[in-house]
Amino acid sequence: MTPVSSEKSESVTSTTNSTSNQQEKLTSTSESTSSKNTTSSSDTKSVASTSSTEQPINTSTNQSTASNNTSQSTTPSSANLNKTSTTSTSTAPVKIRTFSRLAMSTFASAATTTALTANTITVNKDNLKQYMTTSGNATYDQSTGVVTLTQDTTSQKGAITLGTRIDSNKSFHFSGKVNLGNKYEGHGNGGDGIGFAFSPGVLGETGLNGAAVGIGGLSNAFGFKLDTYHNTSTPNASAKAKADPSSVAGGGAFGAFVTTDSTGVASTYTSSSTADNAAKLNVQPTNNTFQDFDINYNGDTKVMTVKYAGQTWTRNISDWIAKSGTTNFSLSMTASTGGATNLQQVQFGTFEYTESAVTQVRYVDVTTGKDIIPPKTYSGNVDQVVTIDNQQSALTAKGYNYTSVDSSYASTYNDTNKTVKMTNAGQSVTYYFTDVKAPTVTVGNQTIEVGKTMNPIVLTTTDNGTGTVTNTVTGLPSGLSYDSATNSIIGTPTKIGQSTVTVVSTDQANNKSTTTFRINVVDTTAPTVTPIGDQSSEVFSPISPIKIATQDNSGNAVTNTVTGLPSGLTFDSTNNTISGTPTNIGTSTITIVSTDASGNKTTTTFKYEVTRNSMSDSVSTSGSTQQSQSVSTSKADSQSASTSTSGSIMTSTSASTSKSTSVSLSDSVSASKSLSTSESNSVSSSTSTSLVNSQSVSSSMSGSVSKSTSLSDSISNSSSTEKIRKSINKYI
């Protein structure tokens, strides 16, 4: 069976009268008085189960004191829902042990009560803490299933006990391993061994340590021991044990059945038959090695078979059962060290048994048929009358109203007193309640970014009931939706603005609640602009249009402002392009500011270079200073015809300074001063024809100083025909 997480139950006080002659007590010895009152308190966490099969609740600790017969049981829980606590007080001279778990596999999560027939339990390493309790020096490791009863040191006593009684009319079987340590009589000072006791006494009770090996001290009990210390002489009376038989003396650990009398004095059983006689172990304890260990009991034949490391002991124990005066037994596994030492451990495989003298009580949601809190198991002796807690006050606080009780499968139930008389056969009582409390939703106001996939908004729903809650969500912003599978609002908002969202929550009992909250969709993200690389073009040449591409998460338009354009270029905001014809050579930094509807801005820049036109590009540096004066009279008559074809590529750099003075009869007097720098790359081709008739008489006087630096490459082809040429040149 699988455990169910538990919750605390509401505090309730009940009184129980018993007609049983047997008393239950929580004490480490068999000593008790029937006049003492018994108080049981349990602190149990519970959560409404949603599974179709009832499951047991964890029981982790069980503490008892012999002085006032008080037992405390604490159950941890993984649940986080409603927490309550339960306390019951009995004035009867008997102890009623209550377990907050479901021990019956026959229960189903339905609204009808199921008959309790056989409460078969299977204990393994994973659920051991739900059914058994460690005490003393004992510890449990769930990962390995190992119960360490004693460490390898002196003065240790540890035990593990079962939480409900075993029905000896039904078969049971324990399968696991045992580690007796690495010492035994004749091989170091090892002690004391491990005892497995079946007792008619109270649940949780263990025998004495030392020679009793955890069995002595229990009245009319029986069991089996793996003894590592032979008591050759009779121990003192307080040890509650007789001397061990001489047949297993002389060194070495041994195995044997054990019985106790009405005073709790233990005797090691001997027999003429090798089948059940005390015998030394064929495999002695060495190196703290685990050996296979098995206890198998047949409820029909009453034969108990014990196996240790392949060695077998078998006996019909019907006489011991009859002597005990009952058919229902508690189980304990105990080890001690006293003045010796040994690491003593039991490793659980499985333990299957049938509970006896129990009544199961369920607390069911009438609408869903599921358990509101974990069922309780009341365990006692046959014919013992116990008071049942119907948990009405606790469940009222959880939002439930009491409806009815079904005791069809509890023939001894008294609804007036809320009592039931224990029988060998199991009984069951079911209390029904109606859910009257509406569910609640916890969610705060939200602010999310438009155009971006949002983190899911989880609607945290809390309900006291055992059924499902249905949420209906309206008023969501555009682009969002409600996912009922995850109980979350998801999506990508597409519009800026604030919306009021309404959530109506309905449970299976049709209890409703309405919750509202706001979702504010905002735009805090600046537009994105497609990067524009640096650009260049030639002066006086039209450019290819430059497109400014922008995008905003809101989906709205973006406004662009462009500054720093070269002369001749313009920005058209209607189509977001830069175009035109640059008119000045140079480099400009162009700045684009893109603004969305919410005022978020993005600034981008790129460089634009305007270069010279490639058809006439030179680089020249010259400096010139010239003064001239000339007087000339000329007459010339010339005719010439010339045809020339030339092509040249020239790169030159020149610097010149000149000064000239001239007087001319050509009606021209000039003075000039110039400084120039130029660079050029030129390819030219020309064809010319000239006819000149001229007469010239010239007289001139000139003075000139010039300085020139020039670098040039020239390729020229020319052809010329000159018919008449006359020239008078006084000075060149």
Automatic annotation (TrEMBL):
Entry's Gene Ontology cellular component terms: membrane
Compositional bias of kind Low complexity: 1-91, 614-721
Molecular function terms, GO-annotated: calcium ion binding
Listed Pfam families: He_PIG, Lectin_L-type_dom
Region listing for Disordered, in residue ranges: 1-92, 613-732
Protein name, entry field: LPXTG cell wall surface anchor family protein
Organism annotation: Staphylococcus aureus
